[in-house]
Amino acid sequence: MSVIYILWLRQIKRFSRSGIRIVMGFVQPLVYMLALGYGLNSVFQSSGKGSYIQFIVPGIIVQTIMFSSMFWGANIIWDKQFGFLKETLVAPVSRMKIMFGSVLGGATISLIQGITLFIVAIILGFRPYNWTYIPLTIVFMGMLSLAIISFSAGIGAVVNDMQAFVAVNNFLLIPLFFLSSALFPLDSVPTAMKIIAYVNPISYAVDAIRMTLIHQSHFGLLTDFTVLLGTLVALMSFGSYRFRQIQV
Amino acid sequence: MEPIISVKNVSKKFGDFTAVDGVSFDVMPGEIFAFLGPNGAGKSTTIKMLTTLLKPTGGELRLAGHDVTKEQDATRKVFGIVFQDASLDDELTAFENMQLHAVLYGVYRKEVNPRIEELLKLVDLWERRKAIVKTFSGGMKRRLEIARGLLHHPKVMFLDEPTLGLDAQTRNLMWNYIKELNQKEQTTIFFTTHYLGEAEAVAQRIAMIDHGKIVASGTTEELKQQTGTANLEDAYLKLTGTQVRDETLDSTAGNRERFRSMMKNKQR
Question: Which fold would CATH assign to domain B5-267?
Fold first, then answer.
């Protein structure tokens, strides 16, 4: 068994043993989907933009992945506080492997949550434009979750207490989500908001997933992919750099 | 014979605070060695340097022939450690904690399961191998940590206050395991403790550290003779004084350094 695999497995086991985490992971996005989806559907439709439920599902999938990925860094703080991190840091394996195995585990969990929400959406009546695009959707979901988990691991490596971690997360997460194209189409918002959405990488993740699910895109799939890949590389470098700097 | 642990003129500074100040000592293979001193004297900092968790500011540390600072991975393979505070994954079972350790240390695959069984039986936890560690008592966790530390046949075992917070029965049991292990596998034992009776009963040689400096070393007999006292506790008090120390000097120094480097990064 390789080091990466066993650390991946550790994350999966911890997740599967925590019923509350499994449930909470998608209750919040589900509430958003139901409240906003049904609440705003008629307004959206009467302005001639089609079904809001269809429009919002990609955005809510992104939200699920964002939130579970962002809080994943809390694991590193727990591992510091409960001491398990020391066990891995004195072991004769590179920190890159330790970080990579754990991050992959976290990304798998986020993906499971994202896909669960997608299935729930289908049960509630969501219909994708073309089923053969779904694997591509999953690739984009994976890229998004790897990027955010790497970032979150970096923050978890620097911050030592949970309250500060939650505060930093909320400070970053809420604006990134609400100022992306997750909840509204970009062609009908004021210029200032448009500019913010353009520099927000989350918009491109939403756009890519929206394109592959309901065939609507603002930027084009190639631009989405390029921006996401760039973000992924940058955040992974940040995360692994910070993780290598940890001292206990 | 070459010493298995060799510490030469080692210092560690956190900013302007010197935690360890020009410390030198040797430990021979197969020895049981006690490292004693008041809180904040530099014990844990020295162990952290010997186990690659901290880099020394100056001096040379060698472990089983490897330069600890330069050959980190080679060094990490030859020692096992039980930390002062817990370092298990609470959400995994005892067996899974052992398995994870075996993979991290690249223990030969076919050997893994029999070795885990042997060690868990040694520390009386085999029956509880499928229980989640969260449900264990303090003593059980300690025993599991000792078993885990031994999994990869370390040449040197570091025990940083291994009996802290344990009852007399468990302490007694634990030292019996450790002595048995020292005899059976010729593992060198390097430990710290605040129970001086323990050190007197178990250790073959002792070094005492205070304010970051070695104040005395030798066998219990030698230390008693040097100080003209009847037991190790009196010798210890005579050498290190009766004043109570700042409990958290070690950790606050570490935090101070962390905080400083964080502020520096922000300014950049």
Answer: Rossmann fold (3.40.50)
